Amino acid sequence: MIGNINQLLDNAGLRKTKGRETILQLLHTQNRPLSHQEIISRKSISKYDRVTIYRILETLQKVGLLHKILGSDGVWRFCTHKYTKRKKCGGNHIHFFCSECNQMSCMPEQSLPWINPPKGAKIISKQLVVHGVCANCLNF
Amino acid sequence: MIGNINQLLDNAGLRKTKGRETILQLLHTQNRPLSHQEIISRKSISKYDRVTIYRILETLQKVGLLHKILGSDGVWRFCTHKYTKRKKCGGNHIHFFCSECNQMSCMPEQSLPWINPPKGAKIISKQLVVHGVCANCLNF
DNA sequence: GTTTATGCAAATTCTTTGCAATACT
DNA sequence: AGTATTGCAAAGAATTTGCATAAAC
């Protein structure tokens, strides 16, 4: 698995550092997007400086190894691309945000709708965040 | 017009204050959602304290006179409901966000798609923000 | 007169910047 | 050895809280 991740960094032309590996590993293992705060409060990550985490997330996102989505709480969350088939998808799927536990999850089965751009405008990407209460939280 | 706005505040069970009236008036006149910063930099608003503006926006949004949407810059924007037919729509339409000028606009003609909730979850609302470059900015 | 909203000061939180020390190739 | 990344300190921005004053009912 680590070999795999190093490969990703290599292909992206980035140096292989412990921090980047650990974060990629974490997000790969996770099945939902994590915020900066969620990431830094993991035992495996907490030894790194917050600034470093900001920079790693920024870097990985820029080269396309991560994408970021905004929760309806205004906080960015990051996740890997493993839930989509295409390689450079840019996070092209719907996300669900639970307002009870503030956790976000991916809804990869449903695709984003086609949108007609405003007159003369160019569409770059779309973010559809569904806001609600997840199954877990509904039971309490 | 002011009479109209006072009516809205009244119906919502809120006291009629100059600040609330002015902000509602501004957003009613505007044809796009405005951020806290955009709002407070208006001449008619700048005399109020930033904290007051935060609280007014919060209050108006809570009683349903405004809704808020997040731009892909992570900043909340507020707008009235005048662009939708239904009274308590909760901002149920698509928004366009231009990453050049950072301005948001409404796309009221197109409606939000139907989404299947994750198993056992309850959907409360949906936010679809289309990210791109507006007609104006494309020409420069 | 009582209750609610506002203004001000200060605290808190989140994010960014600069630079020296360290790690990677 | 040379370059990119990290850690630390500090700056900056956005937002929230507490409380006294002022405005609305």
The portion of residues assigned to helices of chain A is 25-40%
| Alpha-carbon Rg of chain A, integer | 16 Å
Q: What is the terminal separation of chain A in angstroms?
A: 37 Å
Enumerate the spans of chain A where pLDDT stays under 50 for 5 or more consecutive residues. Answer: 83-90
Order of the strands making up the biggest sheet of chain A: 1-3-2
Q: What series of H and E elements makes up the topology of chain A?
A: HHEHHEEEEEH
Beta content of chain A comes to: 15-25%
Shape of chain A: globular
Number of helix segments of chain A? Answer: 5
What is the CATH topology of chain A?
Arc Repressor Mutant, subunit A
The name of the CATH architecture of chain A is Orthogonal Bundle
Oligomer: homodimer
Overview of this structure, please?
Two copies of one chain form a homodimer. The first copy, chain A, is an alpha+beta fold. Chain A has five helices and six strands; from the N terminus they run ααβααβββββα. Chain A has one domain: Arc Repressor Mutant, subunit A, CATH 1.10.10.10. Helix content of chain A is 31%, strand content 22%. Chain A has a three-stranded antiparallel sheet with strand order 1-3-2. In chain A, strands 5-4-6 form a three-stranded mixed sheet. In chain A, helix 1 (2-11) crosses helix 2. Chain A binds a DNA duplex (25 and 25 nucleotides) through helix 2 and helix 4.
